[in-house]
Specification:
CATH topology of the largest domain in chain A: L-amino peptidase D-ALA esterase/amidase
Site (Cleavage) (chains A, B): 235-236
Order of helices and strands of chain A: HEEEEHEHEHHEEEHEEHEHHHEEEHEEH
Helix content of chain A: 25-40%
Family (chains A, B): Belongs to the ArgJ family.
Subunit structure (chains A, B): Heterodimer of an alpha and a beta chain.
GO molecular function, one term (chains A, B): L-glutamate N-acetyltransferase activity, acting on acetyl-L-ornithine as donor
Distance between the termini of chain A: 46 Å
CATH architecture of the largest domain in chain A: 4-Layer Sandwich
Largest interface: A-B, 61 and 62 residues
Oligomer: homodimer
Subcellular location (chains A, B): Mitochondrion matrix
Number of domains of chain A: 2
């Protein structure tokens, strides 16, 4: 049982102080080693973390070749949480996905206390033994928390088709549990422990207020890793978000669904979807205040905006770390008569190998973008009207947009300016559907945004030479 | 009006003899220059061509940078043909697609005499002027044939968003028409004239018989080019097939749809679909015999098999010429309770960047294949049952299959053998769905096959550096 005061949990600035079971630990980690210079700007130097949560990342050596990096992450709340998760839609669902789903169903999204994550082995396509292993991981965490009912969400990432070194993991859980802490350093170490081929740990946090108690400070923290199936034997998309705001399970589920659709499910590195993808959100209510329940309340609306933007920022770090990526591209499909169709179009552009290679080559090739708009499958009739479709590049420096196609007619493009815009790491592509068949009356109706990276030689090298 | 005897048209072995309007021409072309050594085996040295068709490929210089290669192709039948076509489903349909559709509709698939194709400019996203240009091309061909009704299918391939140099093209049509010929050399020159970034011309022909007149010889010839959107400003998938068998328009349409679904629409280089994709089939009945009408006739069934296999062989040449491709991969999804779902799964594997890069890296990475099976969108419920799914590699040398996954359980893979199999240019991946939820009773039910190539460094170079 964790017995740490709230004062301690909010002390994010306390350096390297570990608090659990009333004891204090010190530790250090090689977090900054081997992180590329260009990625260091994405690693926060401090944070504002939710009350009542303690975390730890420790070394187990799940993968034999890992001799020093943390690969077991543990997140615990001192009180029971509302919890919700979005899981992969892949039909080959890894054991931890099946187990976590069962746990959330059995507990009706309440009474969840912990998240345990290992890197190095995905525990996918591992049969009944794999399911038992996933249960064992969760049960050991529950035992450390003095609980008898399943109260832990389990995640794994790594090689497919191999069993976990379950004894090593279970043996390491009590030690890891004893290192639980609420410091910035502990959060960073936890973020590091779920990485596989990521080049940097992905952690963000923020504080916020809700309309019903404007003087109360809430916090939200999240860690994430990997993107889709960048390295299918190694990676998966995992996300764990924690808040000290009080949220009912049903509201939590709909808040998370909304946020994930617009963040983790709106990014693309290579379009593949792993067997293990999981994003979980825990809310322990430790900061107090009125519980968020009804979707029609002002608190709910505010929480939705905050959570969605937060999840977007977190998921964008995954794109920033896309294998071999040299560009970070936002594609905005606007003035669509239908949100879902706009989303399909954005996703199709984001996944087009030809768009991705053109961007790598700094080529203002609007024909490839237009083609992707035109062949997107599942778009509702009347959404894409060639004569109402416009495409432009929006520079990140705030200079005017570069129009490439207006109402289906190609513009005479200033190639020098196009080239200059494409030199920047960041780019926004705007596809304006002009209201579709509704025309003017459909303007400003629906908008979908996707974030993606380019395909580079490095991507092919990494993915082609993976096992050789 | 073409006045050439049938005897002349069948004289495929006559070297370089051009026949049109009663005159005889000689020509030569630089067909064999710049064709990679490894691709020369795909270029036929002779052929058996359908009676009553004459063809020509000539140089126009549609693209200013093209100073010598043929870029205008003309195919004419001396008598009216039944004709059918399958067009791109891209919503941005190029002008020639719109015009050819209108012509086929207006003529109810009958009375078609010619196909005219230019390379170097796609006449796509070119507004009303582009539509007029496409009509002009067809009208000029009809004029040469002494016809007043639209009787020509028009196709274009090349840069998007630019108008055709229509005067140059229209001026070149009578000259090209005067060079029409039925020789092997003329067919090869015609195949060459539709190429853009293809490294070799794609032409095949074959003779066949039909059950209703076993002593009569029919012929089928076809040319094709490009794949999907390999080079979106330059390429598109075009195919033109001609037969001297007599086929009713309605039967022709269903025969072509069946064949294209299992050939041109079952190949993938990069998964993108162009604005111009068109495959057309003309049947002039010049070889005589009973006309194929009812889908329940023995002739229809035979024709369906012949046309489908022919279209498969022709379309596979496109995959052989995939940009940067080092491998030719067949993916067979078998024992599916549903054909369409099997097809979606095969297409998803064929398009997965991770599968494609793994194959480039000669990596027996069944996890990537399995993941693609699992995330395929639109697959019917009950088709993919993890515990009934098996994956294996089938070597092209006839040696035993290498089992990677059996009924959802990973095999201990002989990596040395896997590596040896993957060294071959050709590979077949077999995904066995085990009958899906129907189990044993669903075995041997439905099967879908896709052909695709790998993603290589060369692909990125070609597509990333296209305009630089």
């Amino acid at each position: 049982m964790i017995v740490v005061s709230r004062a301690q949990f909010t002390a994010a600035a306390v350096p390297l102080t570990k608090m659990a079971r009333g004891r204090v630990y010190f530790f250090s980690t090689a977090l900054d080693t081997e992180i590329p210079e260009s990625k260091r700007k994405y690693i926060p130097r401090s944070g504002t973390y939710p009350k009542g949560f303690a975390v730890a990342g420790s070394y187990v050596g799940v993968k034999a070749s890992n001799t020093r990096f943390p690969d077991l992450a543990l997140i615990c709340s001192e009180t029971p949480c509302s919890a919700a998760a979005v899981f992969t839609t892949n039909k080959f669902q890894a054991a931890p996905v099946q187990v976590s789903k069962a746990t959330l169903e059995k507990r009706h999204g309440q009474g969840i206390r912990s998240i345990v994550i290992n890197a190095g082995c995905a525990n996918a396509v591992t049969g009944k033994g794999g399911i038992e292993d996933a249960w064992s991981m969760g049960a050991e965490v529950d035992k450390c928390n003095g609980l008898h009912e399943p109260s832990t969400i389990v995640m794994s990432t790594g090689v497919i088709g191999q069993r976990l070194p379950i004894k090593k993991i279970v043996d390491a859980i009590p030690v890891t549990h004893s290192q639980l802490s609420s410091t910035h350093s502990a959060w960073l170490s936890t973020a590091r422990a779920i990485c596989t081929t990521d080049t940097f740990p992905k952690l963000i946090s923020q504080s916020f207020t809700l309309p019903s108690s404007p003087d109360r400070t809430y916090s939200l923290a999240g860690i994430t890793k990997g993107a889709g199936m960048i390295h299918p034997n190694m990676a998966t998309l995992l996300g764990a978000l924690c808040t000290d705001a009080p949220i009912e399970p049903s509201a939590l589920k709909s808040l998370l669904n909304h946020a994930v659709a617009r963040s983790f499910n709106s990014i693309s590195v290579d379009g593949d979807t792993s067997t293990n993808d999981t994003v979980v959100l825990m809310a322990n209510g430790a900061a107090g205040g009125k519980s968020i329940g009804s979707a029609s309340s002002a608190d709910y609306a505010t929480m939705q905006d905050i959570l969605t933007m937060f999840a977007q920022s977190l998921s964008q770090l995954v794109v920033r770390d896309g294998e071999g990526a040299t560009k970070f591209v936002t594609v905005r499909v606007q003035n669509s008569p239908c949100y879902e169709s706009a989303r399909i179009i954005a996703a199709t552009i984001a996944r087009s190998p030809l768009v991705k290679t053109a961007l790598y080559g700094r080529d203002a090739n609007w024909g490839r973008i237009l083609c992707a708009v035109g062949y997107a499958q599942g778009v509702k009739s009347g959404v894409v009207m060639p004569e109402r479709t416009s495409v432009s590049f929006k520079p990140v420096d705030g200079s005017p947009v570069l129009k490439l196609l207006i109402n289906g007619e190609p513009e005479k493009v200033d190639e020098a300016r196009a080239s200059a815009i494409l030199q920047d790491e960041d780019l926004e592509i705007v596809v304006d559907l002009g209201g579709g068949e509704q025309g003017e009356s459909g303007l400003a109706r629906e908008e979908a945004v996707y974030w993606f990276c380019d395909f580079s030689h490095e991507y092919i090298t990494i993915n082609g030479d993976y096992r050789t």
